[in-house]
Inverse folding.
């Protein structure tokens, strides 16, 4: 996600973006993530600061990057001419906006492996989720992990997702 903000609200916007990404990974996918600041020597050219959200893969015994949140300052706004301020005849009276980028899923295959290892989900020889570990699959991923020929499981996952959405809407 890309967020525009003012210089005064840049810190709050950056904190909100990292919090939203961490909440998505924790609540939706059930992953335990750790927020790590990227050192200044490893920052991209346009970044003033950057944080990585790392997820632990227990079977591989390694941490992987699942999300990156970057405060780009006014670098992107200068490139694209994004300004804000009172409307005046003199365009120079306006100041450049600040941008905050948040890439929640850096690599989809890494994310799916992290989910599978974290929840101890077993796959069969064809790469499908085994019946015994189906209950451990997060609700958000159930519909996309069902093979097209397994209609009963697909209908069950849709029913469970609809019930969960109705429960969340009622709360």
């Amino acid at each position: 996600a890309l967020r525009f903000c003012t210089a005064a609200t840049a810190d709050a916007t950056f904190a909100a973006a990292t919090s939203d990404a961490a909440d998505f990974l924790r609540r939706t996918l059930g992953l335990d993530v750790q927020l790590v600041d990227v050192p200044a020597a490893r920052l991209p050219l346009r970044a003033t600061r950057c944080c990585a959200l790392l997820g632990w893969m227990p079977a591989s015994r390694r941490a992987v990057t699942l999300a990156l949140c970057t405060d780009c300052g006014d670098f992107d706004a200068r490139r694209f001419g994004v300004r804000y301020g009172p409307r005046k005849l003199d365009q120079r009276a306006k100041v450049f906006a600040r941008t905050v980028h948040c890439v929640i899923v850096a690599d989809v295959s890494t994310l799916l492996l992290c989910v599978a290892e974290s929840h101890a989900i077993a796959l069969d020889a064809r790469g499908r989720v085994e019946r015994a570990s189906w209950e451990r699959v997060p609700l958000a991923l159930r519909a996309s992990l069902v093979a097209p020929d397994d209609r009963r499981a697909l209908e069950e996952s849709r029913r469970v997702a609809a019930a969960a959405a109705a429960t969340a809407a009622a709360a």
In short: The chain has a mean pLDDT of 81. The longest strand covers residues 62-73. Helices lie at 10-28, 75-80, 108-118, 139-145, 151-170.
